[in-house]
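Sequence only, no structure available. Ideas?
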Amino acid sequence: MHRARMHTFAFAVGLMVLAGAATQLVPQAAGQTGDGWTTLLDDKNMGDWNKVGESNWRMEDGALVVDKKTSQDPAYLVSKSAYKDFQLHIEFWASDDANSGIFLRCQDPAKIADRSCYEANIFDQRKDPTYGTGGIVHFAEVNPMPKAGGKWNTYEITAKGRQITVVLNGQKTVELHNGLFAEGPFGLQYGAGVMKFRKVAIKPL
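Reply:
I predicted one. Tokens follow.
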């Protein structure tokens, strides 16, 4: 092969490899998998969840939106599968007065609570650092306390054995070493304010 053509071919192959690697890092459409990822919520439908409590979950402009519940108790969307070790990617938008959270390794999928799950909180109004956004309620306080209200945020949560690491917008907020809850489904909570979720994907480890 001519040297110039060889260089052009090698360059093209390199671009294809890089493009493929980049694609593998992005979870694909709902229900499909890529590089071990399963997307549970995409920009077209809210996916298949178990509902605990009643709220007005709905899709709007490519995001799952909720801003109202029918009782005093929080409402949840709970995954139908249980997970032990995993990476979880969630993008969320919260109003300043929002009360929400990501519940992990829940022990009773029909009764979600922060005493029977690990809860990565979304709650800017509470001054207690174990209840702040980025903390794990009752288990790991966050300091300094970040604010999530009024913008899109990204949670990257990794659970591996006794270790749970929470990363908010690229910054590690807490690392918990605790073996109380070993496995279970995860859930999205709605308690108050306005919440939006998008690009929810999980990768078992």
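The longest helix spans residues 3-25.
Hope that gets you unstuck.
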